[in-house]
Each structure stands twice: as structure tokens, then as C-alpha cells.
Amino acid sequence: MLGGGGFRVPLVYQALLSDRGEGRITSVTLYDTDRTRLDAITAVLKQQADRTDDSSSAPVVTATTDLDEALRGTDFVFSAIRVGGLEGRTVDERVALDLGVLGQETVGAGGIAYGLRTLPVATAVARRVAAVAPEAWVINFTNPAGMVTEAMLPYLGDRVIGICDSPSGLGRRAALALGLDASQTFYDYAGLNHLGWLRGLQSGGVDHLPKLLADSESLGDFEEGRLFGASWLRSLGAIPNEYLHYYYFARETLAAVQSVEKTRGKFLLDQQSDFYAETTRRPGDALELWQKTRAERESTYMVESREVADAGERDERDMSAGGYEQVALSLMRAIAHNERASLILNVRNRGTLRHLDDDAVVEVPCTVDANGARPLTVSQLTDHQAGLVSAVKAVERSTIEAAATGSRSTALRAFAWHPLIDSVNTATKLLDGYAERLPDLAAYRSRIG
Ligand code: G6P
Ligand code: MN
């Protein structure tokens, strides 16, 4: 697990612990550049294992700050790194907000800045994997996940697969709102990571989405229904990923994010600095400290967006049935055991969506087995969806090119082309603002070699 000292690592380890199936994961190596974080998370994992009934069969955990050592002999690489840490995330947000545009981890200017910082490291990692563990599958959680997966592909081919929990979460919530069995439902979902739509909900040979769209009460029963509101969802004829709230309600979400004292990144930075410091002082309480921190973190997720929509609290069902760790585990089992599964993943388009070329990474339902993930047939994007997806794909590709070449004019294009950045002058200021506030990118890359 790259980024093995990260706060969400225990979620993945918990999923591995609960996996009692044959051929479960036997050993986990945590890799991180920061020893203190590795020690804290190792302490949490140890306590998780101790508390299971059969702790002797828990996956063995080791930790290292040497990338090649971590990669050698592994079957699966989980990549969940955060280049520049949460300090970097707060800069991504702040520079944009101060210039009057959205500052968010993966959407708009913040996502481009985060991409520029992350891609050189992600591609360096991809090269090391190709050299040291060429047989390994890479499961990429690193955000911006679609862009990062596309940048790693030239080095790893289809052995890199990007994941996100939001599409399956949306599908499951929509299915549950109608009382459908989520495991027997096909989600006609398509787009890019954090920029997709649910256009059909097929079960028993029937598409249930029209029924859901017509039913205001059921729409009020789940997160995305409340966020977007029944009348807009009916007009759209689809249910967007929650991140599209930043596009469809751009003014309101921007104002809401600007009005709070702490951005999401700053909130998490403060919260996690406390967690790591406290865990270093009291390693015996690592698990309890982690659980307490995690509960607070969940309850504040996308809180500004919910306020804009007057959507109230997230309820239990919005978060049930596992997040990205379950997607990762299902993906890994399907590959390792050749057990066919259907999952929404970030993979090469290969002709699935005709508005995009074959090599564009898209987020679509896939069938997965020992040969990896292959996109399934979904309905085509509408003109509106295709327009937005193509615009953002062009931004992603400019960002990838700018990160690879260091070209300022390519980076300017990435900012200026983004639908949420409304002026080339602002794009220029964003570029200058980030260049000034973000530490030397070469320093990150040199840690990987
Ligand atoms: C969702 C998204 C992830 C993202 C996370 C953000 O799960 O799909 O891509 O990393 O939320 O959560 P955070 O708590 O870091 O704001
Ligand atoms: Mn995601």
C-alpha cells in the first residue's frame, strides 16, 4: 500500500480482515515517505488485528520507506498517495478561492493544481512498478483518480485500474430508495471520475430509473436525490454523481465553500495533525483515536454542498455497505480468483463511449476476472454529458502534458479550458498563485528516484 501511513489505510485493512474467503491476502507492506505516520498507522492495524476472533490469520503487516523493497514480489499495489500532504490540499483550495473560483480537491482549479503536483510522482511510481513488479496489478485510489490512472497507463498498460466509491455508492443508494436488491441491479453509469451520471437502473429486465425520477418521496430518501432536487433530476433525466453539484450549482457551492472558515483540506489537516501527534504519544490508544477521528470526518463530508441544497444530515444508509475499500477488495478478489464481478471502474474507453477515443480513461461498469477489467456496454453519453466530459478530458490531458513537460503554456491551457474557470486572466493568476505557493515539484519526484 503506497501512502501506507495514510489515514484511510485502516479501512482497507479492516476489509482485508473481514475477508474470510479462501486465498485471502496474507501480507501487507505499507510504504510511505514519513516514518511517524507509518508507525501510527501500523499501531492502528495491529490493534485491529488483535481484536478479531482469529488474529493469528490476520494479514502480516510490515512497513518501509523504501519503494522498491515495498514493491518486490507483490501481487497487488494499492496506490493512495497524497503528494504534498494535506498542506498541499489546503493550498490547492485557498489559492483558487481567493481568486473567486472553486477550490476543491478534485474539481476545477484545485484538481488541476493537485494533478500537476501528483502526476510526476505517480508516473515515477508506475515506472518503478513496471521495473520491479511487472506482474503486479495497480489499484489506483490516488486522486484526481481518472487523470492519475490515465497518466500511469503508458507504463503499466491495463494493469492499472482506477477506483472510486462514489459511482457504486450512488447506484446502491438509488436502488435501495426503490427497495431493489442492489446486488442484482445493473447501473447504466458513465462519464469520467467525479463527473458521471446514472442513466439507468436495470433489474429483472426493467429500467427502474424513470419510476425513481417520478417519485419525489423516494428521491428525498438518498443523498444525491436531496442534493440535486427532484425537479432538476427530472429535467436532466439522470442522476449525477455528487461531485456534479459543483457544476450545476456552481455559484452557490462556491459561495458556501468561501463562507466557511476552514476548507475541507484545512479541517482534515488540523484534525489529522492532532491524530498523528496524539497517537505518537499514546500508541496504546491508536485504534480508539483513529475511530474517533474517523467518525468526525464522516459527519463533515460535503457538508457545504448539503447546506446549499438544504439536504440535512447524511443518513446511515448513505454511507452503508462500504466505501472504496469494498470496491478495492472486490476488484482484487475478482482478479486473484478469476471470479467474475461487475464493478464501476476507471479504465481505457476502448470504443465504449463513442465521443471519446480508445485510450481515454473513463469511469464505466466493467466485467472483471483474472484478465483484468473490460468495459461493459452502456448507453451513449447525451450531447450535454458528452460536452462536459470532453471539455474536462481536454483539461485532464493538458494537465498530464504540462506535468510531463513542465510547459507553462500547456498548464495555462488546462486552467483556462476548465468549465468552472471563467477567464483566461484568472487562469493566469491561478498559475502564478500556485507556482508561488507550491513547493518545488522536483523535490517530490526525487524522493521516488
Ligand atoms: C469520496 C471520493 C474520494 C475522496 C473522498 C474525499 O470517497 O470518492 O475520491 O477522496 O470522498 O473525502 P475527504 O474526507 O478526504 O474529503
Ligand atoms: Mn473518488
Q: Kindly state the mean pLDDT as a whole number?
A: 94
Rg over alpha carbons: 21 Å
Q: What is the 3D shape?
A: globular
Identify the CATH homologous superfamily of the domain at 9-162: NAD(P)-binding Rossmann-like Domain
**Largest sheet features:** 4 strands, antiparallel
Counting DSSP E segments of at least 2 residues, the number of strands comes to: 12
Provide the CATH architecture of the domain at 9-162: 3-Layer(aba) Sandwich
User: What is the CATH T-level topology of the domain at 9-162?
Assistant: Rossmann fold
GO molecular function: hydrolase activity, hydrolyzing O-glycosyl compounds; metal ion binding; oxidoreductase activity, acting on the CH-OH group of donors, NAD or NADP as acceptor
Binding site for Mn(2+): 164, 194
Binding site for substrate: 89, 143
Active site: 165, 243
Protein described:
- With 449 residues, the chain is an alpha/beta fold.
- Among the domains are: 9-162, NAD(P)-binding Rossmann-like Domain (Rossmann fold, 3-Layer(aba) Sandwich); 167-249 and 309-320, Alpha-Beta Complex (L-2-Hydroxyisocaproate Dehydrogenase, Chain A, domain 2), CATH 3.90.110.
- The protein has helices spanning 9-18, 35-50, 67-71, 85-98, 108-132, 145-156, 166-177, 209-214, 216-219, 223-228, 230-236, 245-248, 250-259, 264-281, 286-299, 303-308, 316-319, 324-337, 383-405, 408-417, 424-437, 441-448, and strands at 27-31, 60-64, 76-79, 137-140, 160-162, 186-192, 195-203, 206-207, 239-240, 341-348, 361-369, 372-375.
- The protein is globular, with a radius of gyration of 21 Å.
- The model has no long low-confidence stretch (mean pLDDT 94).
